[in-house]
Amino acid sequence: MGASPAIVMILFVAVGCFMAYPEAVTAKHTGITRHYTFNIKLKNITRLCHTKSIVTVNGKFPGPRVITREGDRLVVKVVNHVPNNISIHWHGVRQLRSGWADGPSCITQCPIQTGHSYVYNFTITGQRGTLFWHAHISWLRATVYGPLIILPRRNESYPFVKPYKEVPILFGEWFNADPEAVINQSLQTGGGPNVSDAYTFNGLPGPLYNCSAKDIYKLKVKPGKTYLLRLINAALNDELFFSIADHSLTMVEADAVYVKPFETNVLMITPGQTTNVLLKTKSKAPNATFLMLARPYATGMGTFDNTTVAGILEYETPSTSLKNRPLLKPGLPAINATNFVANFTSKFRSLATAKFPANVPQKVDKKFFFTVGLGTKPCPKNQTCQGPTYSTKFAASMNNISFALPRTALLQSHFFSQYSKRVYTTDFPAFPQIPFNYTGTPPNNTLVNNGTKLVAIPFNTSVEVVLQDTSILGAESHPLHLHGYNFYVVGQGFGNFDPKNDPPKFNLVDPVERNTVGVPSGGWVAIRFQADNPGVWLMHCHFDVHQSWGLGMAWIVLDGEFPNQKLPPPPSDLPMC
Which residues form the Plastocyanin-like domain (predicted)? Predict the structure, then answer.
């Protein structure tokens, strides 16, 4: 709508917030413009002998690949043909001065309603690697997700051996029930949601599940070749271990940023994270077939889907029948192997070369300390709830503020500033209002406060945030995702963060650069970023159950002085409310 702010508000609509085919390719600037169309439609899908209608993009599950190059412009028209409201988030894309295209519902846009459309228009700047796109409203991303593959610029090479083939593998979760019904019931009763029924590789659960012997992902390889596996954890609520029997993996990228290569037999990947690994096959085809497995890393006190997804790595050879080959199985760490995870994540380092520098802020303008964890809300009068007690509901918070999604999108409210006071406040606490022993004995009062509270910071502020897990309702790992930015993980540890003794140990030389980081169970992580992208940017737990319970906040990065430091006006078709 090209309407004035006043008309926009008069036209207020109360909405519940809570490879597609390329059409054309046109030349532009240093890259090209790639056009895609996403038709949001229902599709009947059968898994685990359960057939149900799911929300998809173009009738595909998982959704289509979007393939682009660094420097290209993406123009994706999303047309909503389903009863649900929808929005699409381009997870990990920096969205430099294109915050209107970021996609989280009620943050940078109102959702696309039934029968309506919106064009996401943005340029891939300074990024190459594996990201993904997914729905960003309620729990629709359970089925609405797909890979976003950013190739290097033409005539640019990888900083590692050129792979023979590149293969995306998306980890997902399958619910026999409707995921929307699952979270709605949880929010109503105040209890934990029912868990998923299976994990999947590229939408397939594999032979360890009932009725799924034929729904198995097979990776067929040739001997003596190097494969680039683009791993994406699109699961709703679970961090996952992954391993391939009798094969090691070389980590070369995390969240679309190259890392110093290191080998591992087992990796752990949180929801929202992407990882590129090199798989070097054996020089001669072995007389064996190899299982690839993924199962959860779980630290919380709640129930979780304690099952295992299996796929098969199969060597192409005409000589031996598959029936005669032994099937080898990889070992995986214990479900709660927190020390393994800490050791694994500490190995990630930026390349920190002249071509791929680690521009970690050496000096910090503003420091923040955010507690991250669970809590409770009072049960409504005359209702019995299923939270920790009959009189409470489960909740989640940062600095004891449970984030309440507004009815008017935050970026719209910020841009048309005369309406902002009705929608949000900028008094999100920089530090806990009542300090306590965060990882020790939890306080008796576990109630959280509700609010749409943001932090406003000037353009180009250098920011440090310490994210501290708490033991309230049990210590737990939390994958925190920041929209619109990458950040550097400069430190992590167990117990309570020590502001005197821990900062001198920070890595300010080659820390890993990510968009999603796991806050250690019973520990903390410190991140730094330069606030050089004006707009409103959500920061939240990528466990959807925790996000639904309010584990999030948002940053307002104010416009800078010069035109190239300011957020442009919204596109005319932006869904407003």
Answer: 40-154, 166-316, 433-559
First to last CA, the chain: 11
User: What beta strand segments (E) does 324-411 contain?
Assistant: 327-328, 366-378, 392-398, 401-403
C-alpha to C-alpha distance for 252 and 280, rounded to whole angstroms:
13
- Mean of all residue pLDDT scores within the chain: 94
Beta strands in 364-504 (DSSP E): 366-378, 392-398, 401-403, 449-451, 454-457, 461-469, 478-482, 487-494
pLDDT of residue 549: 98
Percent of the chain with pLDDT over 90: 91
Q: Where are the beta strands (DSSP E) in 4-72?
A: 22-28, 31-47, 50-57, 66-69
Q: Are 30 and 41 in contact (CB under 8 A)?
A: no
pLDDT in tens, 349-365: 999 999 999 999 999 99
List the alpha helices (DSSP H) in 130-203. Answer: 179-189
Instruction: Pull the structure tokens for residue 180.
Output: 């929307």
Rg, Å, the chain Cα set: 23
pLDDT per position as a tens digit, 421-461 = 789 999 999 999 999 999 999 999 999 999 999 999 999 99
* Residues 6+ away with beta carbon under 8 Å from 79: 37, 38, 39, 40, 116, 117
Considering the domain architecture, whether residues 284 and 189 belong to the same structural domain is answered as: yes
Q: How far is 441 from 430, CA to CA, in rounded Å?
A: 23
Q: What is the pLDDT of residue 547?
A: 98
417's CB contacts (< 8 A; 6+ apart) are: none
E-only strand ranges, 63-160: 66-69, 73-80, 88-91, 117-123, 129-135, 145-151
3 has a pLDDT exceeding 50? no
pLDDT in tens, 97-107: 999 999 999 99
Residue 11 lies in a domain: no
Parent domain of 169:
160-318+325-350
**CA separation for the pair 177, 175 (Å, rounded):** 5
pLDDT at 382 over 60: yes
Answer yes or no: do 131 and 187 share one domain.
Answer: no
Dihedral of alpha carbons 391, 396, 397, 402, sign: negative
Q: Quick check: is 90 in a domain?
A: yes
Reply yes or no: is the peptide bond before residue 333 cis, omega within 30 of 0.
Answer: no
The amino acid at residue 415 is: F
pTM of the shown model:
0.94
Beta bridge partners of 229: 167, 277
Statement to judge: residues 134 and 183 lie in one domain = no
How many separate domains does the chain show? 3
